[in-house]
Amino acid sequence: MNKRFSTLVAAFAAIATVSYAQIGDKYVHLKSSSNYLTWDKASLADSVALGSQGSTKADMDSALWKANLVRVNMPGNDSIYTLTNKATQKQLSFSAKLNGAEKFGTAIAAGISEFKIKYNGTTGYNIIGTTTDGKLVEMSGTSGSLVVDGKTDKAGTGGTAAVFTVEAAKADYDVTKADLAPVLPSFKFDFAGRDGGLFTANELIPVPVTVSGATKFRFQVVGQENSTKGTKAPQYITIDTVMVGTAASVKAASFQLDTTITAASSAYKGALNEGLQTFTLKMDLGNDSIVMTTDSIVRFNTAGEFEVADHGAGTGVTYLVGYKSFDGGAKLVVDSIQINAPLITISKGTPVKLAGGTGVYSLQLKAKGGNIKADYNDKYLTGTADVYAEAASAYVPSTQFYVVENEDGTYSAQARDIASATVPSGVTAGSNGESLAIVAPEKPFTDKPLYAVDAAKSIYTTVGGDTLVFTKLDVDMANKYIGYKYYTKEEMGYGAVKFNLASKAADDIYLTLVQDSVIAGAKGIDNAIELRLMEGADLVAVGDTVYYGARALGDTLVRVAYAMEKAYNAEGQFAYENTVVKLSDPSNGSLAAANKRFFFVENPAGGSYKVIAANEAVSSSATAANLVNANMVTMNISNLTVAYTAPTASVETYFNIEGAEAPVYAKVDAGHYNVIDGSEMLTASAGIAKLLRVGDELKAAAADSDFSLYVDSAYVNRGEDNTKYGYYIYKGAEVKNDTIVGNVLAAKGNFVANNATGDSAIFRAVTVVADTIAYTGDLDKDGKQNKYKVRDAKNTSLVGFKVVDGEGYEIVALNTNKSLAVVNGTVIFSNTVAPQVFTLGTAEAPTANEGVEVSEVTVIAGEGQVTIAGAAGKKVVVSNILGQTVASTVLSSDNAVIAAPQGVVVVAVEGEEAVKAIVK
Q1: Tens digit of pLDDT for each residue in 474-531?
Q2: How do residues 880-895 score in pLDDT, each as one tens digit?
Q3: C-alpha angle with apex 42: 65 to 91, nearest 5 degrees?
Q4: How many angstroms separate the CA atoms of 163 and 153, rounded?
Q5: Mean pLDDT across 425-445
Q6: How far apart are CA 838 and CA 55, in angstroms?
Q7: Residue 713: count of CB within 10 angstroms of its CB
Q8: Nearest 5°: CA angle at 484, between 480 and 488?
Q9: What's the per-residue H, E or C state across 106-153?
Q10: Which among 20, 347, 465, 883 counts the fewest CB atoms within 10 Å?
Q11: Mean pLDDT for the chain?
Q12: Cα 109 to the chain's mean position, in Å?
């Protein structure tokens, strides 16, 4: 430990808070017990930890800090500091907020960046910050944890604050070649602005030499690397044999350039000159200053004659490169006494700016010659370490790197994806029930300056990094799903998609369903199997939602794995079993969920997609990115067989995904609605579906609550993310868990009028339990209640809301494909009459969630007839304008047709006011 720092540490023990004068201008270690406060860049976000000091310069720099005085608070005379890390040149700063694990972590974040360093009176110092509301924040003795107001987590668990001591940085670090010239082959010394002769006039090339097991250096001067004489051998900075000054003055040697003498030479009086060319470099990591010494020296006697003291001549004396005064000036020499050591530092050259600035780039490796990565020369880096791509693409995020220009002129880069589809671990539950996995692609450099190798060709390198060609890509940064096909909730689940083979060798080929539920290829869109997309929370092993992107730099992307089931039939899911691609029964528990979930991975040229299982990854021998060697859905174009396997030359792997660009059927949240047709609304009257108006004078008065219908999924999953698009419409519904009792819209009986055919639309008493429906009074031959599944043909209540763009919805009976229509005022389900277009409006729930039916009679005039609805069992008298009776009868149905003469007739229904109608 140097004298100055010994004084510093001794002074710390005698004061309550640290003063700036005592801390000085060097970086120091902050040590708690046997651990050091260290900047940690191993995780996605920078943080600090308590750990080992490390053995490399990079490790030790990460554990060194400089305290910078901000102010002195009064009263208390507390000195307030910021703490700057040597490796990152960033300040220590905490948000003091709970992290995702509901703990106070030590991630670097904006917030508290000023600290009081206070002596505890016995063992060391506490580093104390303060929140805006006055809470004290200290680092815990447990690595990665803060103590905020005495607590370490949301639960209020207490913690013990770390106590630090101050330790000097290593002052005799052995400099390596990588420290001198980590990027380019040459470097420069800086002697604090003073003339260093050959050492500072030009750039130097360090040449390591091992002497007695220790690494020392020779230095060539750039531009003068070789002698101009003889064989033009390499020449190095060498201690000169000419004395500086006179015998009565300096009597020391300066420096010259010379080749290495390997045999006795008169130039050195029979000695060798290797020791005169060999320098030892020791660095003080507190400020990266260097002390340069030699083991050999040229000495002069009183007559000015020289001799070579080879390797100290056994004296144990160290010879220092420094300054001595001569004729009123200073001369750089080598001596052991009365020498002024300069402040020597390393200049690594001038960093450059990336011409394209912050953006998305491809990084092409330039690693020729003896570089260990030479086999991958001209290939492209990917987000997976040691995996390289033949080409980069704006559609392949694993070959894209988000490069950010930092405020200090340094650069950071992270890939936007890894080279495999998912990660095998790290899955957590998301807030919406999905299974989340987070991908952390490679970061080739962080907070590093760039140095130009050939700026004209966009070739740059970083300290200790690869030489790379930076090519800016035309990437839509607003597209957060780049590289993968993504569907919104509205786009998926309500329509269907078809897979068309993207091949120049085979046209109009689609995935289809053949015998034994196997998937194969077939020509023509009419043969295409239609599949509905689904999400879910069942991929607990691999995650169905994956966050990727250069997240450490603020670039977050998302990809989603989808299940696919046969459209309008949820009983078959697209899956693979071994190599067979098929429709699998969802109840097949032996088939893993990941075998039924797929990512759609975009073609590097864009537009078409590979279909790859959610848990797929590149093989261990892969050297190319974007799942080139992964298993996937393939099609053999010679026989149109489909398999889940690694691609070969005889198969195609890309498909165009058609359909689902807009929803076919709408998702409707469970709740009460008005089903509206212009000025009328759907309701129930005496068990019959009617379109009525509130307060219509031709009908009995109806209140708002009479039109409140309850809509709910026909499937057991009635959650927020339910995408099964079949629904029941109830008039009066009591809901308990997965059971509903009420009156449901249904089709029953044949309707024929004016060439229109269909089914009468009625409301039937019903009990729905999970995925079964039971109509009251519908019994089998043994008198037992019939129960029907959702897709049973006898279930006439299952409807979907088919989207009519910009207008509303058609209400379609999904088991018969008949739509709700109106014929002469009668509501029916029909496929021969133009469907009615409805809109949905939110409605209040009726009292006790039960509907009150409208008691009224409807009279509809037609050609030579009147139709009387809602009057079954009542007496009806029809008379002409003269009062003559045309018909008098008791109606036997709720949809009675009575012949009448052309003109005005009066219809009198028992218990109702008489109304007039004009018969055509």
Answers
A1: 998 888 888 888 887 656 645 578 999 998 888 899 999 898 889 999 999 888 888 8
A2: 877 788 889 988 877 7
A3: 30
A4: 20
A5: 61
A6: 75
A7: 21
A8: 65
A9: CECCCCECCEEEEECCCCCEEEEEECCCCCEEEEECCCCEEEECCECE
A10: 883
A11: 81
A12: 19
Which amino acid type is present at position 210?
T
To which residue do tokens 């070649």 refer? Answer: 177
Residue 570 has pLDDT above 60, yes or no: no
pLDDT at 571: 59
Pairing of strands 545-548, 435-438: parallel
Give the C-alpha distances (Å, rounded to integers) separating 665 from 403, 437, 573, 681, 698.
Answer: 43, 30, 19, 21, 35
As a whole number of angstroms, the distance between CA 206 and CA 279 comes to 10
Share of the chain above pLDDT 70, in %: 83
pLDDT at residue 501, as a whole number: 94
The C-alpha atoms of residue 433 and residue 560 are separated, in whole angstroms, by 13
pLDDT > 90? residue 222: no
Query: pTM for this structure?
Result: 0.47
Q: How many CA atoms lie within 13 A of 146 on its CB side?
A: 31
Q: Are 81 and 68 in contact (CB under 8 A)?
A: yes
Structure token pair of residue 603: 């073609």
Nearest to 909 by CA among 884, 872, 880: 872
Q: In which residue are the tokens 């060194």 written?
A: 64
Whether 208 contacts 216, CB under 8 Å? yes
Nearest-angstrom CA–CA distance, 833 and 865: 21
Whether the per-residue pLDDT at 625 is higher than 70: the answer is: no
| Secondary structure class of 394 (helix, strand, coil) | coil
Residue % of the chain over a pLDDT of 90: 28
424 prior amide bond cis, ω within 30: no
Q: Which residue is listed with tokens 């003063």?
A: 19
**C-alpha–C-alpha distance, residues 626 and 619, integer Å:** 11
In sequence order, the 6+-apart residues with CB closer than 8 A to the CB of 55 are: none
pLDDT digits (tens, 9 = 90+) for 822-841: 988 889 999 888 899 999 99
Handedness of CA 660, 661, 665, 671 (dihedral sign): positive
Residue in the structure block whose two tokens are 């008691």: 855
Is the Cβ–Cβ distance between 272 and 262 less than 8 Å? yes
Count how many residues are written for the chain.
920
Instruction: Give phi and psi for 373, each to the nearest 5.
Output: -100, 15
Strand partners, 869: 858, 895
Dump pLDDT digits (tens) for 44-55.
678 999 999 988
d(CA 643, CA 811): 39
CA-to-CA distance for 147 and 918, rounded, in angstroms? 87
